[in-house]
Amino acid sequence: xxxxxxxxxxxxxxxxxxxxxxxxxxxxPAPAFTATDLAGKPVALSDFxxxxxxxxxxxxxxxxxxxxxxxxxxxxxxKDATAxxxxxxxxxxxxxxxxxARTELQSWQATKHAAATASxxxxxxxxxxxxxxxxxxxxIVDPKGQLIYAGxxxxxxxxxxxxxxxxxxYVNQALGEALAGKPVSQPVTxxxxxxxxxxx
Length: 200
Prior knowledge:
Layout: H1 2-16, E1 34-36, E2 42-44, E3 53-57, H2 63-70, H3 73-83, E4 87-93, H4 101-111, E5 118-122, H5 125-130, E6 134-135, E7 137-141, E8 147-151, H6 170-179, E9 194-195
Parallel strand pairs: 3-4, 4-5
Antiparallel strand pairs: 1-2, 3-7, 6-9, 7-8
């Protein structure tokens, strides 16, 4: 578990070192993107201007992702957010053009009762623009298109579901503050999880 976390942190450092990838920054405009969702429909960040948008990097095989889905924590967080009018986009970056990735993600999300507004398979371009390094890796974009949060889903960097109860859910916290018109008290946290694998 510690090795996964260290690899994720290393991934952040490596991505940050590349000028071509160092685009996303809290307090700056969120990088624009267009993708195709699991139903084959186009999805663009610009489609949701005027709304809060959560971006969630995911991977069904990652134990850190399983922690939050098997326990019901992430589906509950998604439902709570979307009930408040927040758009939730789940993104899986895949290292190769695997034609099964789309259907496998769709099937997995259905079994976990996921409640994302839309889910997309990323060829690496979105992940590199946001410097997504781990799964999960979370981002929040405000109605003006500014990135207001980037980092972990919560304060317990483990794959143990038992740790969720005692953790601070950073996404819920940031959304609650932002929806109330307050500044986000912790706009950047250290993401943890499995390393995002990019196409070579």
